[in-house]
Design a protein that fits this description.
0% strand; 3 helices; mainly alpha
Length: 76
Amino acid sequence: MSLIDRIPTLSDDEVVNLLTNARRLSESGDDKQKAAAAELLPALEAEAETRQSERMERAKAKRAATRKATLKAAAA
């Protein structure tokens, strides 16, 4: 299994760490490291963006539920 195939199974912290390292290597690595980073970066960036969007949606839903519960309690 390649690293790209493993990205969906990684934790959020692992994805961010790998993305940070890939960005660093794309700038300052040797030719082999730059090539590997260039291959990984699109998949890592897409996964990080997807996970960020999902976290934002969960937070939005939690705030809405809390607001609804607060309004319900105040009305009672």
